[in-house]
Please model this.
Amino acid sequence: MKRKAVYAGSFDPITMGHLDITRRALGIFDEIVVAVAHNPEKDSALFSAAERVDMIRTALADTGDRVTVDAFSGLLVEYCDRVRATAIIRGLRAVSDFEYEFQMAMMNRHLNPRVETYFMTASETYFYTASRLVKEVASLGGDVSALVPPVVHRALVERFSAGKRS
Ligand code: ADP
Model:
């Protein structure tokens, strides 16, 4: 049986931390679905789900067909059943992630005991990298090029320079 895992998140936008987790997970699972969670009703994201998916595909173009990228809304455990994945991957950074991630893992197990949550840590280089901070710094003109893939860097520069013009 192929071991298939879903790496779910907002990925608004994807960072080097997320990419590091995805590549590490390829050493453990046969197939990874990077799944962009979005809420069509109240999505306050900077990038649309389609833009996020496109950027992730570009950033992971070298990984071949073991990685697929998709968007979903609704319950993650139901999505896992739909794509026949038996594992959820989540990344853990500092202690601050732990409480929320632990609660979510327990809730997901309650909702669907067939799906197991796996926590992974990225390289220490990206321990403090967070999409929220990357957006904030980029919006103020700071250089985030080392923290995001080139496709995301271009999109951030474009998005925030367009904002300045208007
Ligand atoms: P969410 O919006 O659900 O927090 P994110 O898109 O921020 O999701 O991130 C998806 C997952 O990746 C989460 O489990 C998050 O903790 C993890 N993650 C985010 N950034 C990093 C990083 N730099 N290193 C390791 N894990 C990370």
